[in-house]
């Protein structure tokens, strides 16, 4: 992060209490009526990344993948990787992954009411630490646009590819609802 970033207005979505309560609620709904809960940014946001992974020569079935802030785990169910049992969750603490994936988690961290800048930086460093040398970090964000993410992560990751997302036009300007970028880890 070299340029001064204007932080986002803080929100309860940036607190652990909010997410603990949201997922307790989702879990009880799931147990009661099988509702799988929120799929943030829609199922197409998962399909977009999984399709890219399948088609890219950069990721294969041997690749280890971790979904950071996985929520209800919908992304992992698509991949059908076995990161949802306790043994594998333990591994996350000590492992490095070929692919680290984030959908909405950096967004949530950015909304932290207390010192979001240092929280974002800690997050970026943690992602760098658990991504293998030359590994990939794939992020989908609704709070930051391409150039902001590229700038935030620039010390630790370089842009490998932008996965296109749907655009809309408003007032003569073209925008996107979500941004999706594949980064490559930079050696430190
Ligand atoms: C918008 S939700 C996205 C959930 C999931 N990735 C998805 O796409 O459905 C944000 C997620 O970030 C997680 N989160 C927020 N701050 C976190 C932190 N400091 N460490 C780990 N996870 C965090 C929340 O628990 C929540 O699961």
From TrEMBL:
<keyword id="KW-0489">Methyltransferase</keyword>
<keyword id="KW-0808">Transferase</keyword>
<dbReference type="GO" id="GO:0032259">
    <property type="term" value="P:methylation"/>
</dbReference>
<comment type="function">
    <text>S-adenosyl-L-methionine-dependent protein-lysine N-methyltransferase that methylates elongation factor 1-alpha.</text>
</comment>
<protein>
    <recommendedName>
        <fullName>Protein-lysine N-methyltransferase Hamer_G016093</fullName>
        <ecNumber>2.1.1.-</ecNumber>
    </recommendedName>
</protein>
<dbReference type="GO" id="GO:0016279">
    <property type="term" value="F:protein-lysine N-methyltransferase activity"/>
</dbReference>
<dbReference type="InterPro" id="IPR026635">
    <property type="entry name" value="Efm4/METTL10"/>
</dbReference>
<keyword id="KW-0963">Cytoplasm</keyword>
<comment type="similarity">
    <text>Belongs to the class I-like SAM-binding methyltransferase superfamily. EFM4 family.</text>
</comment>
<keyword id="KW-0949">S-adenosyl-L-methionine</keyword>
<dbReference type="InterPro" id="IPR029063">
    <property type="entry name" value="SAM-dependent_MTases_sf"/>
</dbReference>
<dbReference type="GO" id="GO:0005737">
    <property type="term" value="C:cytoplasm"/>
</dbReference>
């Amino acid at each position: 992060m070299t340029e001064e970033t204007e932080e986002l207005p803080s929100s309860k979505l940036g607190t652990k209490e909010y997410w603990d309560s949201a997922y307790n609620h989702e879990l009880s709904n799931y147990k009661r009526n099988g509702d799988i809960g929120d799929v943030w940014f829609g199922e197409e946001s998962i399909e977009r990344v999984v399709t890219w992974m399948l088609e890219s020569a950069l990721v294969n079935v041997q690749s280890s993948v971790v979904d950071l802030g996985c929520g209800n785990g919908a992304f992992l169910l698509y991949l059908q990787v076995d990161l949802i049992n306790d043994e594998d969750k333990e591994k996350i603490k000590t492992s490095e992954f070929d692919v680290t994936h984030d959908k909405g988690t950096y967004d949530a961290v950015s909304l932290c009411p207390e010192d979001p800048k240092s929280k974002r930086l800690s997050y970026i460093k943690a992602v760098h630490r658990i991504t293998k040398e030359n590994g990939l970090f794939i992020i989908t964000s609704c709070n930051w646009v391409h150039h902001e993410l590229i700038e935030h992560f620039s010390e630790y990751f370089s842009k490998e590819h932008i996965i296109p997302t749907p655009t809309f036009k408003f007032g003569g300007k073209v925008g996107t609802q979500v941004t999706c970028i594949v980064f490559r880890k930079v050696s430190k």
